[in-house]
Amino acid sequence: MTNQEWFNWLKENRGRNLVLFQVLKTFPHFAELIIRVWEARVRSPLLRYKLPKYVKHFHPQRYVTLFMYLNNQTKIGGETVFPFALDRFSDEEIVRDGMDECSKGLAVPPRGLHASLFYTQTPEGDIDHMSRHGGCPPHEGTKWGSNAFMWDSDADEGAELWTTK
Questions:
Q1: CA distance linking residue 117 with residue 131, whole number of Å
Q2: Are residues 7 and 57 in the same domain?
Q3: For residue 134, how far is the Cα from the chain centroid?
Q4: Cα dist. 76→94, 110, 142 in Å?
Q5: PANTHER family given for it (predicted)?
Q6: Structural domain of 66
Q7: What are the pLDDT digits (tens) for 60-75?
Q8: Buried b vs exposed e over 68-83: b needs ≥16 C-beta within 10 Å?
Q9: Are residues 31 and 92 in the same domain?
Q10: Are residues 7 and 55 in the same domain?
């Protein structure tokens, strides 16, 4: 794609809704390019998943979590695992040496431009222990992801936490 083609596409789609969706649909390699450019510029070792790390996430004020998988670079490992869940994604047995949690419960494979949505609380506001989750380390490649959270508190109340000193 040339600069002129890109410019023409941007000009044609100016002011449209769902432009990001259209960019990814029209130029599927664009997401990979964004990740690579960002990765090259940031070069922060804190942003890379290191072995052997399994952290159980627990956030009582979060009502819903949406975890988006940004790439397909992980060939083995990198699953988001819910060790207390009763169902499995497939009949495939996942075994990770030294990480028993990755061999139990529900394991969601990291597939680029897919997402996992899960509730961390019950409708009554109680903690849903089956939502406890963690990331299995990728054995090859790098897993990139992004989170979006929905909270069980008023939006103005949450905003005040960040704007008041």
A1: 10
A2: no
A3: 11
A4: 10, 10, 10
A5: PROLYL 4-HYDROXYLASE ALPHA SUBUNIT, PROLYL 4-HYDROXYLASE ALPHA SUBUNIT DOMAIN-CONTAINING PROTEIN
A6: 50-155
A7: 477 888 898 888 866 7
A8: ebbbbbbeebbbbbbb
A9: no
A10: no
Same domain, 99 and 37: no
Does 80 score more than 60 pLDDT? Answer: yes
* 146, pLDDT greater than 80: yes
Q: What are the structure tokens assigned to 93, written together? A: 């047995």
pTM given for the model? 0.55
Whose tokens are 């990001």? That residue is: 20
Q: What is the pLDDT of residue 60?
A: 46
Q: Find tokens 């596409």 and name the residue.
A: 9
Helix (H) or strand (E) holding 4: helix 3-12
Q: Which two tokens stand for residue 150?
A: 């929905």
Spatial neighbors of 42 by CB under 8 A, at least 6 apart, are none
For residue 155, what are its two tokens? 């939006």
CB 81 within 8 A of CB 102: yes
How many domains are there within the chain? 2
